[in-house]
Amino acid sequence: MIINPPTADLLSSLLAQADFLPRLPQGRRLYEATKAAILSQQLSPGSKLPSTRDLARDLGIARNTVIGAFDQLLAEGFVSTATGSGTYVSTTLPVAIRPKGKVADSPESVPVNSFSGAAPLSRRGAHLTGFAAGERFEIQPFAPGDCDFSMFPFKIWQRLQNRVWRDSWSELLDYGKSGGYLPLRRAIAEYLRVSRSVKVSIDQVMITAGTQQSLDLCAQLLADVGDTAWVENPCYWGATRVFESCDLNLHPIAVDSQGMAPSESDFATKPRLIYVTPSHQYPTGAVMSLARRRMLLELARQENAWILEDDYDSEFRYTGRPFAALQGLDTHGRVVYMGTFSKVLYPGIKVGYLVVPPVLVEPFKSALYDLHRPGQLMIQAALADFIALGHFTTHIRKIRQAYSEKRELLRKTLVSQLQQTITVSGEESGLHLVVELPDHVDDIALESLAAESGISVKALSRYYIAAPVRRGLLVGYAYVNMDKIVYYGKLLAHAIQAQTRS
Ligand SMILES: Cc1ncc(COP(=O)(O)O)c(C=O)c1O
Fold first, then answer.
1. Per the CB 3.0–4.6 Å rule, which of 41, 104, 127, 288 could disulfide with 278?
2. 60-107, pLDDT tens digit by residue?
3. Can you give the pTM of this predicted structure?
4. Half-sphere exposure for 32 (CA within 13 Å, toward CB)
5. 360-384 as b/e, with b when 16 or more CB fall inside 10 Å?
């Protein structure tokens, strides 16, 4: 039998620490101190604890307080009692706090072991969570990708939501079983036909919880483990995360001024999925040329591959009409088109949509329901009214105008401050521009330097998943007040100058 003579000393020294849960009652503190000692194995498995009477005396507290703490430890499985012989530290731990270690004989208990190392994730889990760009960074001036949701018409939305709640029927509180709220699917189909030249019937439209979910469905249903996904390099990290989570192999394809640019050698790696952002390559801003669109469509036809067209911010084109979608050119049903309301309305709305070829309608509908149990029909109903009553078009017009002015002011500020030293690109559409930097400039260090001035730009090199990597900064102009652009623009320019010189 193992005995811990200094138990009272150990607990007493833990309890004496000023920062050891000072606001909790005495009994709770004793319970926490004993538990901590057990988990850290300062009290080893199987060792005998002092009697409640002795411990109360040694610690100078009421015996009932000790009994209460021990009872709690007993109830939670940290200690056990043997009639007439006292209280012992368990040789097993409760399932909920199993440490990493040897697999136990019994599925309900494991030998006590030390808590060490990282969280017990799968290899995939560790890979997916070890990715810094996945963090939601604080929205500060120039944060790329964020729309100015302070311009969202709150009052109109509130009125529409109130009406939905007042007039609607209980089915809207159920799961969405058939691809989403029908009037919303109708409104989206109409919008896409007119504004994006998408070839679509209502049946082909499915409402999802945003692009991530759309991509996940496509990857789950259209590709098998080990299949290859061609992705743009640089690429939207949200897409590569999803493909990796489905155990697909990523094949990065370089991007030039005409979008995804496969070389001869790329064609040797046959794709199952081809993920592209043709209207506004994310993050470089390149628009895919017609020749490239045709080439990819032909490739998809030959290889029975699927093109996943992410049309995430096509509403924001500042010169001329928005480009038509790639899907509209598809004559063989190889394109799955997806869009989102994250950029035009607000990110937390989490409503996106898929337009799938007719042959995929039924499988996608049933998988959407089986895998994701979609809901939020009330929001979908308000959104359907928002579009049908013309508020959506008005809102887009308003924010496009505002972003266009901000973009111009930011571009002018940067160009006048930096003169010939840099090139600004990708500013014809979207919500950010790209400041291109020479290869020797560490854009990640520059990102940190800018952050010291309260600016949230993102390093271009972060978006590459393979060499060669280009250096630059993504500078968002949507979520920044017009009257702050010159001030922060100058700060950013100083940071760029400092970093390019060093
Ligand atoms: C390329 C791209 N697609 C889609 C999205 C939006 O995804 P979601 O609809 O999941 O918010 C983003 C957001 O930044 C993006 O950059």
1. 288
2. 888 888 888 888 888 778 888 877 788 888 887 654 454 433 333 333
3. 0.77
4. 15
5. bbeebbeebeeeeebebbebbbbbb
Which burial class, exposed, middle or buried, applies to 489 when counting CB atoms under 10 A from its CB (0-12, 13-18, 19+)?
A: buried
Report pLDDT digits (tens) over 326-338: 999 999 999 999 9
User: Six-digit token pair at 10?
Assistant: 């150990």
DSSP notation for 41-54: TSS-TTEEPPPHHH
- Closest ligand 1 atom, residue 340 Cα: 9
Domains of the chain in sequence order: 2-111 (1.10.10.10), 150-393 (3.40.640.10), 396-501 (3.90.1150.10)
In this structure, which amino acid lies at residue 36? A
Task: Let me know: does 446 contact 499? Beta carbons within 8 Å.
Answer: yes
Is the CB of 236 within 6 Å of ligand 1? yes
Residue pair 352/210 in contact (Cβ under 8 Å)? The answer is yes
Q: How far is the CA of 151 from the centre of ligand 1 (A)?
A: 19
Q: For residue 212, which atom of ligand 1 is closest to its CA?
A: 10
User: Both tokens of residue 159?
Assistant: 């009125």
Query: What spacing in Å lies between the alpha carbon of 211 and ligand 1's midpoint?
Result: 6
